[in-house]
Amino acid sequence: MLLNIEISHSKALTPEKTDLKQKEEKLEIDQKDYETIDIDTEPITENFGVIAYEEFPFPTDNLFISFQNLKINYTIILPTPNGICPLKTKMFVFVPSRADGFYTRHMIRNSWGANLAERSIVLKFIVGWPQEQKVFELMQEELIKFDDLVVYDIDDSYRNLYLKVYVALQWQQIFCSTAQYILKTDDDTIVDFDRLLWWIDNDFGHRVSKYPAAVFGGMIKRSSPIRNEKHR
Fold first, then answer.
1. What is d(CA 59, CA 64) in angstroms, rounded to the nearest whole number?
2. What number of CA atoms fall less than 13 Å from residue 179's CA on the CB side?
3. The pTM is what?
4. What span, in angstroms and rounded, lies between the C-alpha atoms of 232 and 221?
5. pLDDT, tens digit, for every residue of 22-63?
6. What confidence tens digit (pLDDT) does each residue in 194-226 have?
7. Which sign, positive or negative, has the C-alpha torsion 139, 144, 149, 153?
8. Among 36, 57, 182, 195, whose CB has the most other CB atoms within 10 angstroms?
9. In sequence order, what DSSP letters do the residues of 125-145 get, joined into one string?
10. Do 105 and 126 meet the contact criterion of CB atoms below 8 Å apart?
11. Which residues contact 135 (CB under 8 A, 6 or more apart)?
């Protein structure tokens, strides 16, 4: 298992109404990421956008993120039966994406992200909750047409990028648990799958047979932490 994740499912896989008026104070994740929150008594998931989930014509489920010092309830749009990974999935690829990043997603689908199913590769874009009505409407069309979005209702800010990655890995463990490999890449990156699969077959695969929990990537050595709060 790549990551030990706690999962909490709702009993009914249908949209649940969210009444924001029941909360006297809104809780921003960015301001509370240093606290431990008891999700059983104080769930903090809210619709950060202006669109309520009952208006979204897709089934949802409630999950939660759990770190040592942070616990967050959130809601996710459930995949269709065709959106779940096949049993023999070689690689699960996820791309963090902005809600309004339609053009970038379109370019990926028509370039390096095209015809991946033929290679037993599943590609998903991880998208936060839309803030504008027009984006909301276009996302519905996109989700119906391509079925490759993982949509959740956590504030889609740069500081919360680590939560987006967590959501992607949690989705993988629930709906794509048989994938042999997991690849995280960005929407400004080009993936050469011919070369990547060659390395898997001729190098990485042998390493994984000895170390099943192997992680491949670049390593930064002898680097000091960056203290500038504005640095990205």
1. 17
2. 24
3. 0.74
4. 19
5. 332 333 333 333 333 333 323 333 444 445 555 667 888 999
6. 999 999 999 998 898 888 888 888 888 888 888
7. positive
8. 182
9. EEE---SSHHHHHHHHHHHHH
10. no
11. 99, 100
